[in-house]
Amino acid sequence: MKTAKYNQQLISLDRYNREDYQKLYDDGKKGMLTCSVCGGPVRLYLGIKDKPHFYHHLSAKENCSEQIESSPSVQPSEEAEYIERNGFRIPKARSITAEAEREEKFIFPREVKIPSPFNPFPPAKPGVKLNYLKQLKDAGIHFDGNQEKAVVFIDGPLLILAGAGSGKTRVLTARTAFMIEEKKVDPGSIMLVTFTAKAAAEMKKRIALYPGMSPAKVNQLIAGTFHSIFYRILCFHDRENWSSDKLMKKEWQREQILKEAGRKLQLDEKEFAYDLALQQIGLWKNTMIMPHEVKPESPWEEKVAFLYKDYEAAKERQKLFDFDDMLLGCYKLFKEKPEILDNYQNRFHYFLIDEFQDINKVQYELMKMLSSKHGNVCAVGDDDQSIYSFRGSDPAYLFNFKTDFKNTKLIILNQNYRSPHEIVETANTLISANLTRHEKEMRAQFSGERPPVIFHPYDEEEEATMILTDIKERVEQGERPGDFAILFRTNAASRAVFERLANSSLPFRLDQDIESFYERFMIKGMLSFLRLSMNPDESEAIKNILPSLFLKQSIFRDLQANSILNDCSMLEALTHVKTGFAFQEQKLKRLIPIVRSLSSLSPVAAIDIVEKDLGYQDFIKKRGNEGNQLEKGSDDIRDLKVAARNFKTVGEFIEHADHMTAMNAEIKRSSRNLTDAITLSTIHRAKGLEYGNVYIIGTVDGSIPHDYALDAYRNGDLQPLEEERRLLYVAVTRAEKNLFISVPQKRRGRKANPSRFLSNIKRKMPNQDLGI
Ligand SMILES: Nc1ncnc2c1ncn2[C@@H]1O[C@H](COP(=O)(O)OP(=O)(O)OP(=O)(O)O)[C@@H](O)[C@H]1O
C-alpha cells in the first residue's frame, strides 16, 4: 500500500520526498506509522525485491481491508525507458529532466540481461593415474585435465595463467599436499608465498584437511607473505637492526617524516599530495630505484625525489625502517653475504607463488635468487586481478616469466567453477573494456537462478537499509549469514552498512583495520565542538578541538588551571588563554556562545556552523589532507552530514556516534572467531575469497572508479582507471550465486553518476535497461 498515517497526517509515497524515505523507514520501526484504514502499525519496506511500500506490522494485517500492494520481483522496467507518442512506442530521450527524475524517482532494480545462453563448454578431462590423485578424488576434490596437470608437474618452472574462480587455490593447495604425500618431498623445503597472511592461513588450513595431511606436517611448510617470510630471515641474521619496535607501522608516521622534509621545500600541505608522494616512494623502492637513481619525469616527481632522499636519510638517522625496507634489506643481505643465500638456496627446493600478477621487482628478484639452484618455481596469476600496481606490482613479470625461467611449462585455466554463467559473462564484459590486458574469456560451468541485479538506492543510508532488508529476507528463508559479503572501495564507505548491521541482530565480521568512522581525525574534531555544547567540561573534547583552533596541546594544562582559578568551565577557560595574538584571543572569546548554542540545533545545522563560523573549513583546508588524493578531510565531513541527517538533536547524534564507536571495537573483538557471519570488507581484502551472495556498494564515479583515478585519467594517465576496473572485476567474481550491484543516486549529499564501468555492459550486451 502506498498510503499511511504519519504525525496525524495521511501521506502517500508517490508524493513523499524521496530523500525522506529513510526517515519514514526509521520512524516506522519506532511505531510512528499507522494504517489509514485499521489504524494498526505499519512500516515502510525498503529492499531490493519490491518497490517501497507500507506493510502491516504485527497482527492487524489479517483484519484490515487495505491490501499490501504486491510488486513484481526484480524486473526490467520498460516504462522508464519508453513513452507512447502518436501511437508509437519510442525511447525516452535522455534529458536534463530525465537526469533530475533519476534522482527523485524510485528506480526499480534491474537484472542484467545476458544475451548468450549458457552453453556448457566441457573442461579438459582428467586422466592421470596416481595414487594420491585418487585419494583426493575420493575425498571429493576433483580436478579437470588442466588443473590435474598443474598439480602433478612439480619439477621445473611452471606458469599457471588462470582466471577468476578457475581453481588456483585448489591447485596450489592440492599440489603442495601431492608433493608431500605422493612425492615424499620434505615440507620444510617448500616455500608457499601468498599475498596476505589471511590467505596463507586459509591455505594451510585447507591443506591440513587433505588425505594424509596433518597440522604437524603443514606447520613445517614455510608459508606466508613475502614480507613475513623475508622479515623472519632478516631478524634471524640481524635481530638488533630489524627489531619490530623500529618498524614504522602506521602511514601517519611515514607521512610525518615526509612532511618535515616538505617544509624544507616549503610545500603547502593543503596542496601537496603527501599520500601520493608516499605511494611514489614505495613504488620506487619496490622497483629497486634508490634515491640517487631516480630520474624525475615531472616537476612533481622532482619534489618527491627530494623528499625520498630526505625520508631515507631521516629513517637511517633514527634507525627506523618501513615495510618496503624488509624486502630491500633481505635482498642486500643475500647480495652481501652469499653464504647466507647459499644456505637458503640449499634449504628450499620448491616455490609456489600465488597472485603472481601482484609481484614487484624486489620480490621477483628475491625469488629468482632463491630458486636459482633448483629452478622449481610454480607461479600462479591472473593479470585481470592485478590491483596493486600503485605499489609497484607489475603483471609483466607474469608474462616475462618464460624468458627468465627457461623451459617453463605453461598451463592455462579458463574454466570458472565458482560463479554461474550470468555472473561470469557480466565479469567478462566488464573487464573486456580494459586496454592493457591479455585477451581471454572465462567459461562458466553452470547457469544460475538469476542474473546480477543492479539496484538504485537514493543514497548511502538507503543503500544500507536495502541491503540489510535483502539479507534479512534471505536469512529468514534459510540462508546462512556467512554466505553474504558486502564489499566497498574504501573503509570510509562502509559507515552506513556498519551502522545498520550493528543495530540488527545479524552476526557480522569486520576487518581489524577498519576504525570507527567517528574516530577519524577530522570527524573527531568536529564532533568535539558538538560535545562541548552539551558538556563544556569534557576534557577529551577540549583536547580534540585545540588543533582546529591552531592551539598547541600544551595549552590544555593552562585551561585546566584557568578553569579552577576562574571557577569556570573548561570551554569558558578558553577566553582566558593568552596566545600573544589579539585576533586569536578575540576569536576564542567569540567562540564560546556559538559553541553553547549548538546543542539547540539539528546536528546538520550545528556542523554547518562549526564549519563556517568557527573556522573548521579553514582548518580542513590546512590540515585536512586536502592535497591528498585518496582520503580528504572535507569528504569525511560530507559523509558526516549524511549520517547526521537521521538525527533531530545533537545529543542523539553524539550518543549514536559513541555507541557506534563502542560497537566497532566490540564487533572486531567478538567476531574474530565467528564462523557464520556476514563479511564487511574492502574489495582489496576480498581478493581470493568467495561468498554465496555479494553486494557491491557505491558503484558510482568517484567511488569506483575512485576520484584519484578519474583525476589521473583527466591528466592523460589511463592506468589507475584500468586498475579500478580490475577492482570491480575482482568484486564481481567473488559471487558464487547472487550478485547485487548498488548504484546510489546520491553520494556524500550530491548527485552521483553511475560508474562508467557499467556502461560497457550496456554497450556490449544489447537491449540493456540498467536504470542508468
Ligand atoms: N575442478 C573443480 N571442480 C569443481 N569445483 C572446483 C574445481 N576447481 C575449483 N573448484 C571450486 O571453484 C571455486 C573457485 O576455486 P578457487 O578458489 O581455487 O579459484 P581461484 O582461481 O583461486 O579464484 P580467484 O582467483 O577468483 O580467487 C572454489 O569453490 C573451488 O572449490
TrEMBL record:
Residues 141-420 form the UvrD-like helicase ATP-binding domain. ATP binds at residues 162-169. This is DNA 3'-5' helicase. Keywords: ATP-binding, DNA-binding, Helicase, Hydrolase, Isomerase, Nucleotide-binding. PANTHER family: ATP-DEPENDENT DNA HELICASE SRS2, UVRD / RECB / PCRA DNA HELICASE FAMILY MEMBER. CDD domains: DEXQc_UvrD, SF1_C_UvrD. Its EC number is 5.6.2.4. Belongs to the helicase family. UvrD subfamily. One of its GO terms (biological process) is recombinational repair. It comes from the Bacteria. Residues 421-688 form the UvrD-like helicase C-terminal domain. It catalyses: ATP + H2O = ADP + phosphate + H(+); Couples ATP hydrolysis with the unwinding of duplex DNA by translocating in the 3'-5' direction. One of its GO terms (molecular function) is ATP binding. GO terms for cellular component: cytosol; DNA helicase complex. InterPro entries: DExx_box_DNA_helicase_dom_sf, DNA_helicase_UvrD-like_C, DNA_helicase_UvrD/REP, P-loop_NTPase, UvrD-like_ATP-bd.
